[in-house]
Amino acid sequence: MIIREIQELQAVHFDLLLLADPDKHLVENYVKRSVCFEAIFNGTEAGILALLPTRPETLEIVNIAVAKTYQGQGIGEKLLQFALSYAKNSQYKTVEIGTGSTSFGQLYLYQKCGFRMTSIDRDFFLRHYEEEIVENKLILKDMVRLSIDV
Ligand code: ACO
Ligand code: ACO
User: Fold this and answer.
1) Residue 41: is it exposed, middle or buried by C-beta count within 10 angstroms (0-12/13-18/19+)?
2) Ligand nearest the Cα atom of residue 137
3) I need a surface site. Which of 9, 70, 107, 132 has the fewest CB within 10 A?
């Protein structure tokens, strides 16, 4: 598998980005300001990663997704490790990531990779998303923010 920077986002990339974030307008807005990478596995598009510089010395993983057929094979973990190395090599001090309070699998994965919880943004998904999001049989309301120093 190779991970490489995307020069120009295509429809295939948006299909992946929308797996992690269902709001196309929000996605379009933040990818313009992000550096994006793709994971290519067996010549096909397997995963995506969008990194957005936020505060000084802080990089946020604003989107990470693996194509459904490739999930559960370690690609997501490799993309996270790539993000941490990229941040360190680019002189960032902290990497942040936010996810739904109902995203139990993602919360496991991020903590497995060393992220620690920093705060809860209550009602984030009610405020920013027009469509209700249901995950693990729960209505998603709150955003959990995690970070790691690199
Ligand atoms: N549910 C349960 N466990 C999970 C999940 C999940 N959704 N995702 C990962 N894991 C676990 C795996 O079982 C594995 O466990 P192990 O170490 O005990 O074997 C470990 O985490 C590593 O998993 P990977 O195979 O590396 O993860 P994968 O390649 O499937 O990628 C990802 C994880 C990116 C979350 C993928 O499932 C996905 O694209 N999901 C849909 C989009 C999404 O939710 N993206 C994140 C939104 S938040 C954001 O983008 C900032
Ligand atoms: N992991 C995953 N799912 C769980 C867990 C768990 N540990 N506990 C409950 N659930 C889910 C069940 O699958 C069920 O889901 P469903 O509504 O989709 O069917 C739902 O939650 C309700 O489950 P119950 O059967 O009512 O839960 P149970 O009788 O097992 O009691 C409890 C839950 C008290 C957490 C029990 O598992 C337990 O005693 N665990 C060990 C002690 C513990 O962790 N206590 C809480 C510590 S925090 C505190 O005490 C303040």
Assistant:
1) middle
2) 2
3) 132
51, 50, 141: which is closest to 94 by C-alpha? 51
Please name the residues in contact with 129: beta carbons below 8 A apart, sequence gap of 6 or more: 22, 23, 26
Q: What is the CATH number of the domain that holds 10?
A: 3.40.630.30
**143 pocket-lining for ligand 1 (C-beta < 6 Å):** no
What pairs with residue 143 in β-bridges?
100, 121
In whole angstroms, what is the distance from residue 2 CA to residue 114 CA?
A: 23
Total domains in the chain come to 1
Q: How far is the CA of 105 from the centre of ligand 1 (A)?
A: 6
Please state the ipTM of this predicted complex.
0.94
Per-residue model confidence as pLDDT tens digits over 25-34: 999 999 999 9
Nearest ligand 1 atom to alpha carbon 64: 50
Segments forming the whole domain that contains residue 133:
2-149
